[in-house]
Amino acid sequence: MTTMTKLLAIATALAVSAVAQAGDPAAGKEKAKVCAACHGENGISQAPDFPKLAGQYNDYLVRVMNDYKTGARKNPIMAGQVANLKKEDIADLSAYFASQQALVTKY
Amino acid sequence: MKVHNVIAGTATVVMLAISTAAWADGDAAAGKQKTALCEGCHGIPGYKTAYPAVYPVPKLGGQHASYLVKALQAYKSGERSHPTMRAIAAGLTDKDMADVAAYYAASDVKTAGK
User: What is the value of pTM for the model shown?
Assistant: First the structure.
């Protein structure tokens, strides 16, 4: 294998893994049906105690779900919801909610 | 129960309801004056803090005021653990939290990013 080919292989592998981490919004939409009961059909919750998720940062959503999973963030409802989510599920859900529009950066 | 007791009881309930509503609502204009400490992180699109670990800072604009108050109370009580937010929330009164939450919940001011 030439150096060029090796580099190409590494670049391709990195690109594929980056795509995998980024999550699939369409797959996330299917997995988000259970979320809608509290967070709203489009990530815009109607209940003011539950946060809107639509347009939230992808990496923040990943972080929060992982924190619920580890117990770093404690919430009895969310702990139960995320317990059985795989890494890919979290990535897909985060990509889905991040792709919607509602939340903004305000300054 | 005598009539005047009923009236007094009703008046107490009404007053409690009014006072609860008063601080739950918050004043967005007053809140704007209290966001100096928030803007350095929450006002920058895509900002990440570096302590104690790299942490993506959430968007707050358009979020429910009630949820934002709950989050600030949870930082103040220690239920939520981010050290910077705990330090900031520790210095906020219930009124400050309601005002800041009302400001971020309102969707009529300058925004950046999506």
Answer: 0.78
